[in-house]
Design a protein that fits this description.
The structure holds 2 protein chains of 2 kinds. Chain A is 32% helix and 15% strand. Chain A is of the alpha+beta class. In chain A, strands 2-1-5-3-4 form a 5-stranded mixed β-sheet, sandwiched between helices. Chain B is an alpha+beta fold. Chain B has 3 domains: 7-53, Uridine Diphospho-n-acetylenolpyruvylglucosamine Reductase, domain 2, CATH 3.30.43; 58-173, Uridine Diphospho-n-acetylenolpyruvylglucosamine Reductase, domain 3 (2-Layer Sandwich), CATH 3.30.465.10; 179-270, CO dehydrogenase flavoprotein, C-terminal domain (Enolase-like, domain 1), CATH 3.30.390.50. Chain B has helices at residues 14-24, 37-42, 78-82, 85-90, 92-98, 104-109, 112-118, 124-131, 149-152, 219-226, 231-235, 252-270, and strands at residues 7-10, 28-31, 50-53, 63-66, 69-73, 135-140, 143-148, 153-155, 158-159, 166-173, 179-184, 194-201, 203-209, 216-217. Classes of the chains: A alpha+beta, B alpha+beta. The structure holds flavin-adenine dinucleotide and FE2/S2 (inorganic) cluster (FES) (2 copies). One FE2/S2 (inorganic) cluster (FES) binds next to loops of chain A.
Chain lengths: 157, 272
């Protein structure tokens, strides 16, 4: 089936089987390997991307379901080659990652969460990221990074 | 993990979805948010050969004031319930329970109708709809029928829906009294090991999650309360009439203990 989407602002159209998962479409058809597969069972959030601005687990969606939609992956966040998105910058500054495998999904989930709740408490950040697992950091610095980004992006307490 | 191959049909109306189901029979399955069906397909526990995608039937996505009840389209996402101002006012328990389902990503895709049709006794929303005395509107080749929540959930992943039927609307009587939901799990985002919902609306209704093959009403607790029993005495009856499953999270005995404790906490918090 022909699946046409806009990924990070670029039109993409690929002939894929209906059973192709969105994450495969992004990594294999579009060549965007920033999105990771961690658990492959809908639990870890490493595959999180934005579909029409909202976080989704791309291992638990078929590409055909995103047909006609706008997808944002980690590659599409930074405004330029020399600048990071405020959430990326905050992960860098607050040391919100170690091995980095969960990070693309964690950042995308955080971007979607801050869109819905620009001014969160620490507890709300923890609940807002409950669909994303990190095996390295113990979450503390991730939460600090999201709170820092909220402040920089205009929300924040 | 890659699911078995299937043919994909995108329905552009409820009628088209019903026609596709009629044409493909038992081989076809409806696809809404996919948050229950796709994981099963990836494990090849479900191998439908035709998927009829109804997620874009936006005319079945709504939360409407219908006088004495709130009418909710089957394709309404958990996220839309969680953020509905109407529900917050007219049926806060349903809004609150929707906010407890899975995680943000799951709530962005999963639908109320999908959760109901899936019929998983570990799901939060079916138990809530049982406590709230909801009615389900179902369309099939023979027209439309309504089914009361108490007759809808028939067994583990088994409901009153026939394979050629589409759930279109969920009608929830308004319930503005106190409520509380106790969801006990060991990991964030997970299903309840046991859940207990209390809704006060005239009388006190108590529903249990994951205490049998279907969601259950804790009738003994409700009757004891109606007869004037104390919260502690009523909650002690919470495991009566249950058939708690055993799995890697909990034994039946532990679940029975949780049911009694969670029902007591929910009753206290709801001000029963
Ligand atoms: C990581 C994760 C965590 C989760 N945690 C929870 C949780 O804590 N609590 C909880 O309750 N649920 C949880 N869920 C399940 C979630 O709530 C699902 O959204 C919901 O159970 C199914 O809704 P859906 O729209 O995704 O349905 P789908 O997966 O698309 O469909 C489910 C079934 O219903 C049928 N169906 C769908 N719509 C209709 C309709 N309108 N008419 C007739 N049949 C229909 C389908 O054919 C299929 O058999 C979780 C899921 C995931 C992936
Ligand atoms: S890879 Fe999708 S949730 Fe883990
Ligand atoms: S940084 Fe290693 S998994 Fe999160």
């Amino acid at each position: 089936m022909q699946v046409s989407t806009t990924v990070n602002g670029v039109a993409q159209s690929h002939d894929v089987e209906p059973r192709t998962l969105l994450v495969q479409y992004l990594r294999e058809a579009c060549g965007l390997t920033g999105t990771k597969v961690g658990c492959d069972t809908s639990s870890c959030g490493a595959c999180t991307v934005l579909l029409d601005g909202e976080s989704v687990k791309s291992c638990t969606m078929f590409a055909v379901q995103a047909d006609g939609g706008a997808v944002t992956t980690i590659e599409g966040l930074a405004p330029s080659d020399t600048e990071l998105h405020p959430v990326q910058q905050a992960f860098h500054e607050k040391h919100g990652l170690q091995c980095g495998f969960c990070t693309p999904g964690m950042v995308m989930a955080a971007v979607s969460f801050l869109e819905e709740n620009p001014n969160p408490t620490e507890r709300e950040v923890r609940l807002g990221l409950e669909g994303n697992l990190c095996r390295c950091t113990g979450y503390h610095n991730i939460v600090q990074a999201v709170l820092e980004a909220a402040g920089k992006m205009g929300g924040g307490r | 993990m890659i699911p078995a191959a299937f043919e994909y049909v995108r329905a552009d109306s409820a009628d088209a979805a019903l026609a596709a189901l009629a044409e493909h029979g038992d081989d076809a399955k409806l696809l809404a948010g996919g948050m229950s069906l796709i994981p099963l397909m990836k494990l090849r526990l479900a191998t439908p050969t035709v998927l009829v995608d109804v997620a874009r039937l936006t005319d079945l996505s709504y939360v409407r004031d219908a006088g004495d009840h709130v009418a909710i389209g089957a394709l309404t996402r958990h996220r839309d319930l969680e953020t509905s101002a109407l529900l917050a006012e007219a049926c806060p328990a349903l809004r609150g329970v929707a906010a407890e389902v899975g995680d943000n990503q799951v709530r962005h895709r999963g639908t109320l109708g999908g959760s109901v049709a899936h019929g998983d006794p570990a799901s939060d929303l079916p138990a809530a709809l049982l406590a709230l005395d909801a009615t389900f509107v179902v369309r099939g080749p023979g027209g439309e029928r309504t089914v009361a929540a108490e007759h809808f959930f028939q067994g583990f992943l088994e409901t009153a829906l026939a394979p050629d039927e589409l759930l279109t609307e969920i009608r929830v009587p308004k319930a503005t009294g106190g409520w509380n939901y106790q969801k006990f799990n060991r990991r964030a985002q997970d299903w309840a090991i046991v859940g207990a919902l209390v809704v006060n609306n005239g009388s006190t209704r108590v529903a249990l999650v994951n205490m049998a093959g279907t969601p259950l009403r804790a009738r003994s607790v409700e009757e004891a309360l109606a007869g004037g029993a104390s919260v502690a005495d009523a909650a002690a009856l919470a495991a009566e009439g249950t058939d708690a499953p055993a799995d890697l999270n909990a034994s039946p005995e532990y679940r029975e203990h949780l049911a009694r404790v969670l029902v007591r906490r929910a009753l206290e918090a709801a001000g029963a």
